[in-house]
Amino acid sequence: MQLHQLRYFAAVADTRHFTRAAEREHVAQPSLSQQIKALERELGTELFHRARGHVALTDAGQTLLPLARRILADADTARREVQEVARLRRGRVRLGATPSLCVGLVPQLLRTFHDRYPGVELHITEGGSQDLVRELGVGALDLALVIAPLASRGPALVARELFREDLVVVSAPDGPGPAGAELRVADLRTMPMIMFRHGYDLRELTLGACRSAGFEPELAVEGGEMDAVLAMVGVGLGVAVVPRTAADRSGLHVTPFAAPGLHRTVSVAHRGDVSPPRAARELQRLLYEATGADPR
Fold first, then answer.
1. Residue 181, number of CB atoms within 10 A of its CB
2. Helix (H, G, I), strand (E, B), or coil: what is residue 50?
């Protein structure tokens, strides 16, 4: 099984067309078809249903596709690792982070990194922790800033704790909201809530805290991203539980939780079976410096 065979296979799976796949890979269509047939012979099964004007993956092809993508991603990482040897003059870092961290910690971190290594490409993916863990697992990210504990699927992940952050309740400045200087989780029982979409760690953390307090929260709206949730809180549709960093930038009314409070732990994670590229390791080192975390 050759890398170029897997690349041709993935191209046909993406385009559902042998000629367009050959054009994308800059190879003659007969050569591409021959290589895929050779791959099918080696595997002992067909990977595509072929019909005039229509190409579809077989069950075997569906099974191979995510594995092929992971192998190709790992091979790409290996090539870049070699290219980065010359003092990080070239390279790429693919960093994932939750939306609140993208407007808090990440911008200054990337500014510092870019000033030191201007030739290294920076790619940022914004999403919930569960989404980012999946992206790490398939090799689409080098590092991710996620919320512990991790629900890893696929390859084992290595995570190092960076810091703990307080969670608070935000409400509209001129609307109904928490009456006191602080509140308990149980006080949320009587407040309509704006809830994040599935895949956000804040959703699971908030729901878990409410259930531990013995109730299911009343959801006025659910399914939003960070900006949408804050905007809906701002027009008085309900309250939301968000990190302190996001709350302080929102212009909304902020109410902390009474002791012991609600917190989240921010960690930096990468795949355990593949060492991050050199540029990613340097970004990780800068993360430890910026947050005062122990790299051990």
1. 8
2. strand
Beta partners for 264? 165
Q: What is the DSSP letter of 277?
A: P
How confident is the model at residue 245, as a pLDDT? 85
Statement: the pTM of the whole predicted model exceeds 0.70: no
Q: Which residue has the tokens 């809830």?
A: 195
Query: CA dist 217 to 31, 76, 174, 181, 205, Å?
Result: 59, 46, 23, 21, 12
User: Hey, what domains does the chain have and what are their CATH numbers?
Assistant: 3-82 (1.10.10.10), 89-162+265-291 (3.40.190.10), 164-263 (3.40.190.10)
Torsion, Cα 161 163 167 170, to 10 degrees, reads -120
CA angle 91, 96, 97 (to 5 degrees): 135
The H or E element that residue 44 is part of is none
Q: What is the pLDDT of residues 127-161, one digit of tens each?
A: 888 889 989 988 899 999 998 877 554 568 899 99
How many residues in the chain?
296
Could you report the per-residue pLDDT of 39-72, keeping only the tens digit for each?
Answer: 999 999 999 998 877 899 999 999 999 999 999 9
| Closest among 223, 214, 101, 119 to 163, alpha carbons compared | 101
Q: Is the pLDDT of residue 2 over 70?
A: yes
Tokens 């004007």 belong to residue: 53
Query: Quick check: 193 and 171 in contact, CB under 8 A?
Result: no
- Give the whole-number percent of the chain exceeding pLDDT 90: 64
Backbone angles phi, psi at 240, to 5 degrees: -145, 150
**Runs of H (alpha helix) within 98-221:** 99-102, 106-116, 129-137, 201-212
